[in-house]
């Protein structure tokens, strides 16, 4: 494997890694603050993609407006799931298994609902002129313009959310609630607001990630959030749960790992990509149970 | 300042407090002592709003606070440093104090309060950038109290501030408690160490099995044969 080949794969992983990074931050924030794995996060992502698709194809909006539609769609889905699934469920202080089933049920239910409404076929995702084009460097590496856009936007968002969580009053309050929700209430922090903030941020990133996926792979399907959601969840665990930059870096690691797995093995093996990711997760948890980076929003 | 009347409370069907009256007047330290399981911490939790009393009233500055949620009790001016130290281990000392002052509006005010707390506990200033979980037990207790006084509370609830600390450290903490009171806060102090609690407080309540067994001025209670027999015997 030449350095040139490796560099090309690194470039190829930019988009896939960005999609995972943006989603992984969502998993990590919601797990950090509520202690639950939001399996429906993949569907929040899918609904964002459908919102963008619908806005551009049927309402004939511009592509940038479609990006905002995706964010709006994901945010709406995220807040509704919080309000009508997790809040009533957690209010009764249920067993972890009950929460798991509620989470998995929300994911399954939304995927099925969208399959019923729109069929499970693939739809073409809209694009825009400024995203088209390929750059060839002097050394012969090819870079898609859209991949640069996706990577650039992702880096800005990751830095923005990291700074928010690390340095703003609302961000510090979020980490306080994640550590000890009761102690947070005693100093006057409204835990419900912190939870909503987490869902809001997670959903905004999921909406952007959905557009990145659509632009990158060109399709929208009701089941598009399933596999990528699992992969992003693994990235969140890998990144040290609750650690926002950690989740993002782990997203790129998983993304690159998947690209290399497919690129280096004979074509017949590419169907085993999900298994490869799980094996990677298992191995890393086996060797380093807290993930690669320090958990930041851990529960006590 | 704080007045609890005929309060009944518990967890689910288990009633823990069977109708108590308790008062904290402006500027005084009041001790609430008694054996484990007497309901002292439950009483604190009723004041902070973590538990809703089944019956009776909890009034603070005349308003009934029995039904309002904890984050609003905190902003009404009641600070609480909890047994087990309700600090945020994943945050730095500075961030913990900022969260203690979460309800403070205005950066200047926050700075001013933080300076006051650093003045009170210089050790915290030395540790300002350190994660709270890396502090020693005594430092963690200082931080918990520092957080509770950030918002300049009218009433400070202290639950077992001496728990698990070396005697030297306990003395330091108690000096600071007296200082906080002199600065204007009224204090309700829950303490297992009855001798210590009676020394620092003006009045005291002895709680047993969810009821107030005896109450009165602390110096008188210190001479009460029942108290000496039951709680001060080892002294």
Describe the overall structure.
The complex is a heterodimer of chains A (300) and B (235). Chain A is mainly alpha-helical and 300 residues long. Chain A has one domain (3-120, 142-287): ABC transporter involved in vitamin B12 uptake, BtuC (Orthogonal Bundle). Chain A contains eleven helices and four strands. Chain A has helices spanning 3-34, 41-57, 63-91, 96-118, 145-167, 169-179, 181-186, 191-217, 224-238, 244-264, 273-287, and strands at residues 123-124, 134-136, 142-144, 219-220. In chain A, the strands form two sheets. Chain A has a two-stranded antiparallel sheet. Chain A has a two-stranded antiparallel sheet with strand order 2-3. In chain A, helix 6 crosses helix 8 (191-217). Chain A is globular, with a radius of gyration of 19 Å. Chain A starts with a helix and ends in a 13-residue tail after the last helix. The mean pLDDT of chain B is 92. In chain B, the strands form two sheets. A six-stranded mixed β-sheet of chain B has the order 6-7-8-3-9-10, sandwiched between helices. In chain B, a hairpin with a 2-residue loop joins strand 1 (2-11) and strand 2. The longest helix of chain B is centred in the last third of the chain and has 16 residues, at 167-182. With 235 residues, chain B is α/β, with parallel strands linked by helices. The chains are: A mainly alpha (300), B alpha/beta (235). Chains A and B meet through helix 6 and helix 7 of A and helix 2, helix 3 and helix 6 of B.
């Amino acid at each position: 494997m030449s350095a040139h080949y490796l560099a090309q794969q690194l470039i190829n992983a930019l988009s896939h890694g960005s999609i995972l990074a943006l989603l992984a931050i969502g998993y990590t924030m919601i797990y950090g603050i509520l202690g639950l794995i939001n399996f429906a996060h993949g569907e929040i992502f899918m609904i964002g993609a459908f919102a963008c698709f619908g806005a551009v194809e049927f309402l004939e909006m511009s592509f940038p407006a479609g990006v905002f539609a995706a964010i709006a769609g994901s945010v709406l889905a995220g807040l509704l799931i919080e309000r009508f699934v997790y809040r009533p469920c957690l209010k009764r202080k249920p067993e972890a298994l009950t929460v798991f089933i509620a989470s998995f049920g929300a994911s399954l239910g939304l995927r099925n609902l969208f399959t019923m409404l729109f069929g499970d076929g693939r739809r073409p995702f809209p694009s825009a002129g400024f995203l088209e084009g390929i750059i060839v460097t002097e050394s012969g590496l090819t870079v898609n313009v859209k991949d640069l856009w996706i990577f650039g936007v992702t880096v800005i968002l990751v830095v923005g959310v990291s700074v928010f969580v690390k340095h703003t009053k609302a961000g510090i309050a979020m980490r306080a609630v994640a550590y000890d929700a009761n102690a947070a209430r005693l100093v006057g922090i409204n835990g419900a607001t912190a939870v909503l903030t987490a869902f809001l941020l997670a959903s905004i990133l999921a909406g952007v990630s959905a557009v990145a996926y659509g632009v990158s792979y060109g399709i929208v399907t009701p089941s598009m959030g399933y596999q990528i959601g699992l992969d992003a969840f693994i990235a969140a665990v890998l990144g040290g749960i609750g650690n926002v930059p950690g989740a993002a870096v782990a997203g790129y690691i998983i993304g690159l790992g998947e690209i290399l797995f497919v690129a280096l093995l004979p074509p017949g093996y590419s169907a085993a990509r999900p298994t490869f990711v799980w094996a990677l997760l298992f191995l890393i948890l086996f060797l380093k149970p807290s993930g690669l980076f320090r958990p930041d929003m851990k529960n006590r | 300042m704080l007045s609890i009347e005929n309060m009944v409370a518990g967890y689910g069907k288990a009633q823990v407090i069977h109708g108590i009256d308790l008062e904290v007047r402006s500027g005084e330290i009041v001790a609430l002592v008694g054996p484990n399981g007497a309901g002292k911490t439950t009483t604190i939790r009723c004041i902070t709003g973590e538990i809703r009393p089944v019956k009776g009233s909890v009034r603070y500055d005349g308003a009934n606070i029995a039904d309002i949620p904890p984050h609003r009790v905190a902003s009404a001016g009641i600070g609480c440093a909890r047994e087990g130290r309700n600090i945020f281990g994943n945050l730095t000392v500075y961030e913990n104090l900022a969260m203690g002052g979460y309800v403070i509006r205005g950066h200047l005010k926050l700075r001013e309060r933080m300076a006051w707390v650093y003045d009170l506990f210089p050790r915290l200033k030395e540790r300002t950038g350190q994660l709270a979980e890396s502090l020693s037990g005594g430092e963690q207790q200082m931080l918990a109290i520092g957080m509770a006084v950030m918002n300049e509370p009218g009433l400070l609830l202290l639950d077992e501030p001496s728990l698990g600390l070396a005697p030297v450290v306990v003395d330091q903490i108690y000096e600071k408690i007296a200082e906080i009171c002199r600065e204007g806060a009224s204090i309700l102090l829950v303490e297992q160490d009855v001798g210590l609690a009676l020394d620092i407080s003006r009045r005291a309540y002895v709680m047993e099995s969810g009821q107030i067994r005896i109450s009165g001025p602390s110096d008188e209670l210190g001479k009460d044969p029942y108290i000496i027999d039951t709680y001060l015997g080892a002294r």
